[in-house]
Amino acid sequence: MKAIVWTKYGSPDVLQFQEVAKPVPQDNEVLIKIKATTVTAGDCEMRRLQLPLMLSFPMRLYAGLLKPKRIPILGQEFAGKVEAVGKQVTAYKIGDQLFGTTGFGFGAYAEYICLVAKPSPMQGILAVKPTNLSYEEAAAVPTAGLEALHFLRKANLQPDQKVLIIGAGGSIGTFAVQLARHLGAEVTGVDSTEKLDMLRAIGANHVIDYTKEEYTNSGAAYDLIIDVVGGRRVARRLKLLQQDGYYFLAYAGLSHLLLGWWISLTSSKKLKIESSSQKKADLIFLKELIEAGALKPVIDRCYPLEQTAEAHRFAETGQKKGNIAITVAPLLTA
Ligand SMILES: NC(=O)c1ccc[n+]([C@@H]2O[C@H](COP(=O)([O-])OP(=O)(O)OC[C@H]3O[C@@H](n4cnc5c(N)ncnc54)[C@H](OP(=O)(O)O)[C@@H]3O)[C@@H](O)[C@H]2O)c1
């Protein structure tokens, strides 16, 4: 089968379109013909292994000290069709259309993948794909959708509460905007100029252009802040959080851990660094919202599998609105 092999840590050039062995399912696995996958900011960070220090060292130990040996193929989420099932599999049958995450083995940048039909948390999640989405749209849901849902649930968001989403125009942000609006919150999205119309279109009540406005001095007070950007300005942005409010960081370093500790000692604000534990029930919850018309993934561009390196280059420009999808099957089977 064709796959994008992750040959080294580094620039998008390390992603090479190659022929590799087609996997064969074990008794407890399904063989999925992948129709679409995605390129996320997280995939680019993994490819470069440019992660916060507290993550990059354990990740390098796990994936391979000098090159990524244990994870030969990147791609953390997918949508596709079951092509074969192992003897013990009763949950799915040939032809079922599924979507999900691949767990710590990654491997979605490929024509086929074998996944355990009833995976443990480290092995990803599988669920039946929403009926009203294309494969490309469905592939973009699991990782960012679950992350956004996790933050909103942890904060126990209530109708009419005020939410600020920093980096609202990207993968997590576009799900967070729609989910927070669905829960009845008043949503302000912060991102760069070109993304603001899209943010209004998906329901943001207010938008802020961070390239033109120093909003941290606005005096506004939010019940929940979801910050997917992080960096040095977190302490300044915390001024915008109400006492007892939650501030979630999707990308954090050691300094943020220390800041969170300090904030917990000196105020009732809560600075949280966590990620979704990826539960099947939550993915099904998102699927049901999608099928009810309350949530729709934003897709900026689709690339064919062989241009995955190009898709990584585009993801790193910071220009993408929502998500980038990779179309796997049609080009290769046409
Ligand atoms: N996607 C996931 O499922 C997931 C899960 C766990 C953790 N994470 C981590 O969370 C982080 C964000 O992920 P993502 O996939 O949502 O990234 P993304 O799609 O790249 O979105 C980030 C957004 O932030 C905007 N931005 C950059 N600087 C900003 C600033 N100073 N103020 C406001 N907005 C700014 C970017 O737009 P401009 O560049 O145009 O400004 C972009 O629209 C990544 O580090 C990732 O590793 C992601």
Walkthrough of the structure:
This protein has helices at about 40-50, 55-65, 135-140, 140-155, 170-180, 195-200, 235, 255-265, 280-290, 310-315, 330-334; strands spanning about 1-5, 15-20, 30-40, 75-85, 95-100, 110-115, 125-130, 160-165, 185-190, 205-210, 220-225, 240-250, 270-275, 300-305, 325. By secondary structure, it is of the alpha/beta class. It has 2 domains: about 1-140 and about 295-334, Medium-chain alcohol dehydrogenases, catalytic domain (Quinone Oxidoreductase, Chain A, domain 1, Alpha-Beta Complex); about 145-275, NAD(P)-binding Rossmann-like Domain (Rossmann fold, 3-Layer(aba) Sandwich). Strands 3, 4, 5, 6, 7, 14 and 15 form a 7-stranded mixed β-sheet that branches. Helix 4 (about 140-155) crosses helix 5 (about 170-180). The protein is globular. About 45% of the residues are buried. The structure holds NADP nicotinamide-adenine-dinucleotide phosphate.
Task: Supply the CATH class of the largest domain.
Answer: Alpha Beta
Number of helices: 11
Overall spatial form: globular
Provide the CATH superfamily of the largest domain: Medium-chain alcohol dehydrogenases, catalytic domain
Mean residue pLDDT:
95
Report the helical percentage.
25-40%
